[in-house]
Specification:
The chain has three domains: about 180 residues, no CATH class; about 45 residues, no CATH class; about 60 residues. It contains five helices and 13 strands. The strands form four sheets. The chain has a five-stranded antiparallel beta sheet with strand order 8-3-2-1-13. Strands 6-5-11-12 form a four-stranded antiparallel beta sheet, with no helix packed on it. Strand 1 and strand 2 form a beta hairpin. The two termini are about 20 Å apart.
């Protein structure tokens, strides 16, 4: 609402994991995450975006040769093996001719424009399976505690560690005296979703459906008698009433309706019922006044409004 502060971050993580590897005077970093953010920074409706991130960094521990007296020789190749695969990168200099190189590679897969195609992040390697803490175990309801490093499980490749190897070139052999190391400790964060409630048993659903069909049939017969239609037309309309739910179920299995469109569908349905009430039911009530009928009409209107509001809030 305008004028009210919104306690909503510019970016947030469904899940993340990171590993830090110290190799002598060098530091390797692995950042993994399934992330939500906004296109232009501040939270704005319609600017939502989502992506999976895999970031690898290798640099001198002090930030550069001037800090530690060591540097990564430019154009040196490295192989990084992690829970989601194997990547090889070249240490590139800040500008051509510099003797030292650096590796800082970010691989983001998802949607980065509005409106977001939220199926795009599903192609990220990260989404295959999230790592969870194995030892020490994560707190109840979570996949890890970001303040406590742990060994992990869940790699889709079966490699639950982070390994750095200096190699002779793309696809080359490992340089035995090079910058090599491995760690199996990660900082993991993420919350488990609560189990979904079980679906209602048939004994709770079938009577309601049967009651709706019976009420629909009675309304059809009442309408046909009031308009003095023939019994054959009445039977034909009752047949359509019986077939319509089956056809609706078949169509629903082929054509999916997104959660945002359900609200419009319910609004149309409620508006159609109100139209019927105003054009047919209420005039009949006024012809034969009855407090009970008027009260029932008002109660039905309120109930329909509350139902649409509750479903809209749930979606």
């Amino acid at each position: 609402m305008p004028g009210r502060p919104i306690n909503f971050p510019e970016e947030a993580f469904w899940w993340s994991a990171g590993a830090t590897l110290d190799i002598g005077n060098f530091k390797a970093l692995l950042d993994l995450g399934q992330e939500a953010a906004f296109l232009n920074g501040p939270p704005v409706p319609g600017d939502q975006m989502a992506f999976g991130r895999l970031r690898i960094r290798l640099r001198p521990a002090g930030g550069g040769g001037g800090g530690t007296g060591t540097f990564i020789p430019a154009h040196t190749w490295f192989r990084f093996t992690h829970p989601y695969g194997v990547d090889e990168y070249e240490a590139l200099p800040a500008k051509e001719g510099d003797p030292d190189g650096d590796i800082f590679v970010t691989n983001d897969i998802g949607c980065f424009s509005a409106p977001c195609d939220f199926t795009a992040p599903l192609t990220s390697r990260i989404i295959a399976r999230f790592l969870t803490c194995q030892s020490p175990v994560a707190p109840a309801g979570y996949v890890g505690d970001p303040a406590v490093e742990c060994t992990v499980t869940g790699s889709p490749t079966g490699f639950n560690a982070f390994k750095v190897e200096q190699i002779t070139g793309p696809g080359g052999a490992v340089v035995s005296c090079g910058i090599n190391g491995q760690t199996n400790l990660f900082a993991v964060t993420g919350k488990l979703r609560a189990p979904l409630p079980p679906p209602p048993p048939p004994s709770a659903v079938v009577p309601g459906i049967a009651g709706l069909l019976l009420a629909d049939g009675l309304n059809t017969v009442t309408f046909m008698l009031a308009t003095r239609n023939s019994k054959w037309r009445t039977f034909a309309l009752l047949g359509l009433d019986a077939i319509a739910p089956v056809l609706g179920a078949i169509v629903a299995t082929v054509i999916g309706i997104g959660p945002h469109f359900i609200g419009y569908q319910l609004a149309f349905f409620a508006g159609f019922l109100l139209y019927l009430g105003a054009s047919d039911l209420l005039p009949n009530v006024h012809q034969r006044p009855s407090r009970g009928l008027v009260a029932s009409t008002i109660a039905g209107l309120i109930t329909s409004g509350l139902l649409v509001y509750a479903l809209d809030q749930a979606l």
